[in-house]
Amino acid sequence: RSSELLLNTWISRNPEQTYIFTDGEDEELKKRTGGRMVNTNCSAAHSRQALSCKMAVEYDKFIESGKKWFCHVDDDNYVNARTLVRLLSQYPHAQDIYIGKPSLDRPIEATERISENKVRPVHFWFATGGAGFCISRGLALKMSPWASGGHFMNTAEKIRLPDDCTIGYIIEAV
Predict the structure, then answer these.
(1) Which residues form a coiled coil (predicted)?
(2) N or C: which end of the chain has fewer CB within 10 A?
(3) Where in the sequence numbering do the catalytic residues fall?
């Protein structure tokens, strides 16, 4: 189980800064994380809808938390939190900061649904969610009209792309 490996390595050294988002109830995991496990109640599938559902919950939880930075990494990553915190401390969290590895060497081309039968082409950069990305509180708050309280799912549906692409799309819009 990847959660076991994570709990025995970097997460155990950074419990106050780390939440585990999962798609099912796990009392043992909840206990081991001191309640920092969040059941998203999203599908366990790896579909764009399920991924966007999970990201929507992550985003809302971050906004609720009052923390300065939102960093998303997949569960197959090792995070050197000390180095990450040092990097993030070099940037003002109140400004618009989006840090991550671009997924492509050019902006992605997508189609945005404007209405039932009208679409338009859109181009934007996005950081790959698998490798991880971080967003400052200032930028996250500006994303709110497109991302908070279920809006993330609607926004993802407009471009019919997964969660990390939707983050880039929203950031390009703000």
Answers:
(1) none
(2) N
(3) 164
